[in-house]
Amino acid sequence: MKIIETRQAPNPRRVRIFLAEKGIEIEYEEISIMTGEQRSDAFTAINPMQRVPVLVLDDGTAIAETVAICRYFEEQQPKPALMGEGALGRATVEMWQRRMESDLLWTVGNKFRHTNPRAIVLEDPQIAQWGEVNEGRAMDFLKVLDAHLADRPFVAGDNYSIADITGLCAVDFMKPAQLELPSEHTNVARWYGELAARPSAQA
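Given the sequence above, the corresponding structure tokens read:
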């Protein structure tokens, strides 16, 4: 069993943090998406979508997409529960995981992919205006997130979850996207600081 990844990319990092929280060790194989290795025939045969990370099981089965990989390990090792417990808990984590992914990680990612000259290898053509639109969307969501975190320690409530992992990676990815967390978002800053201090954040 192994995970094929590009270590500097945010999605593989989400999986590494998830596994670190569970204490699961696994083999990793590195490819470079910045040099186009994901477009090779060998990798395309494993994941035709040409994205990392990909979990390859011992029998050769490939599971792609970050949350799907995390779901596999959650089912294999339920504790600690990082995708919620009970109907309400799982639904709440799923709701916030989706929001953190689509309204923050993806918007920050689009800002990077469409405005950073180095990212032309990932996004061709780059559309600078789309990057700027996504910057605005990310900032709008951070306002919502700051208000939400005013009376809870983690995104989905009292317990650390995959939604927090996605948020941590999104905020960290703001730096290469040339975005800054507005100083007035003190609740986000507190939450981010606590997540970044967890040992798993170094995975």
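Helices lie at 10-22, 41-46, 66-76, 86-115, 128-148, 162-173, 186-196. Try to locate this feature in the token string yourself.
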